[in-house]
């Protein structure tokens, strides 16, 4: 078992001798996390801001910039995309989705996919948490809902879905990072997306969720060690997808059931999608494997997106073949 641990500066001096005494092997991946964060923020503040028409896909953007780009795309390329909201967040921010239309002409593979399937793309699910990660806490992962009994904010949005809710791999304590919430779909973000998926579940063939980091392509189940009924089709899609991904830059992804490939967790959106009749449900854990972790440099955005898109295309073409 390998795990990544973030250690406060004032405890690192006592931790290292303990690890050595216990004969636990370790590697220091980032020696000064705060400095690494400040360096990334520094690059962000000095970079040249371009107009929305020249949106830079190789830098990280704030929520306002992302949603501004979505509005601009919807306005200037209404023949390609249609933007709509599925609801609002706890703090009142809209939950925007882009629907890709069937007018794409350049790439033959994309044209084939878009003429036979609709794509719904939600660039940011946890809009409040993402905004907070830019203004207050770079490593914030939960939503921003308030708790009436504890001073801690937020729920792990990927533990809040109504599938084995708050079982193994989730916490009942509001101050934990994996807090499952007071009840399933307590978070307005989860409730809104779940409602949209329920409404269209008979037409939805695949659900893809993107996270970081670990370089893995996961499929159900997360909450238990068991084989899904359509394992052969899903496993084949995953195998071909990671091979397609690797063909770009040689980056290897592990793939398999989330419970045995990563860890057991309950209440995930992937398991919920699968349990609600969506036959192909995947979770990508993008680059890297821990060297940069959640501080992946902007120079790696483009290659990560390029290789991931190859995997997504491969999964989509697999859907069109109608595996049995």
From TrEMBL:
- A Pfam family found in this protein is Peptidase_M14
- What residues does the Peptidase M14 domain cover? 7-319
Q: Which residues form the active site?
A: 285 (proton donor/acceptor)
Q: What is the name attached to this protein's record?
A: Carboxypeptidase A6
| Superkingdom as given in the UniProt entry | Eukaryota
Q: One GO CC annotation, please?
A: extracellular space
Name the family: Belongs to the peptidase M14 family.
- Tell me the leader sequence span: none
Q: Which terms in the Gene Ontology molecular function aspect does this entry carry? A: metallocarboxypeptidase activity; zinc ion binding
Instruction: State if Nucleotide-binding is listed as a keyword.
Output: no
Name the UniProt key words of this record, in alphabetical order.
Carboxypeptidase, Disulfide bond, Hydrolase, Metal-binding, Metalloprotease, Protease, Signal, Zinc
Required co-factor(s) are: Zn(2+)
- Tell me a GO biological process for this protein: proteolysis
Entry keyword Signal: yes
């Amino acid at each position: 078992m390998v795990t990544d641990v973030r250690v406060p500066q004032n405890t690192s001096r006592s931790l290292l001798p303990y690890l050595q005494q216990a004969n636990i092997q370790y590697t220091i991946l980032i020696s000064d996390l705060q400095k690494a964060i400040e360096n990334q923020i520094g690059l962000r503040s000095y970079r040249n801001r371009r107009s929305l028409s020249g949106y830079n896909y190789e830098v990280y953007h704030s929520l306002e910039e992302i949603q501004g780009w979505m509005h601009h795309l919807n306005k200037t390329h209404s023949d390609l995309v249609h933007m709509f909201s599925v609801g609002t967040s706890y703090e009142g921010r809209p939950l925007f989705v882009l629907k890709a239309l069937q007018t794409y002409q350049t790439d033959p593979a994309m044209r084939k996919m878009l003429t036979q399937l609709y794509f719904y793309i939600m660039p940011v699910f946890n809009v409040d948490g993402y905004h907070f990660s830019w203004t207050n806490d770079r490593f914030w992962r939960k939503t921003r809902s308030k708790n009436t009994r504890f001073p801690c904010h937020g729920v792990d949005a990927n533990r809040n879905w109504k599938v084995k809710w708050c079982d193994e791999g989730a916490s009942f304590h509001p101050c934990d990072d994996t807090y499952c919430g007071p009840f399933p779909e307590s978070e307005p973000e989860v409730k809104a997306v779940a409602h949209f998926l329920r409404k269209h579940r008979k037409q939805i063939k695949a659900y893809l969720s993107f996270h970081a980091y670990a370089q893995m392509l996961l499929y159900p189940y997360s909450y238990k060690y068991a084989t899904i009924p359509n394992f052969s089709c899903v496993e084949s899609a995953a195998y071909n997808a990671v091979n397609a991904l690797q063909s770009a830059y040689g980056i290897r992804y592990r793939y398999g059931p989330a419970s045995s490939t990563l860890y057991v967790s309950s209440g995930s959106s992937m398991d919920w999608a699968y349990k609600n009749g969506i036959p192909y449900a995947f979770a990508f854990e993008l680059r890297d494997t821990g060297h940069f972790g959640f501080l992946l440099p902007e120079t790696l955005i483009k290659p990560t997106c390029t290789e991931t898109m190859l995997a997504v295309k491969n999964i989509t073409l697999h859907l069109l073949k109608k595996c049995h």
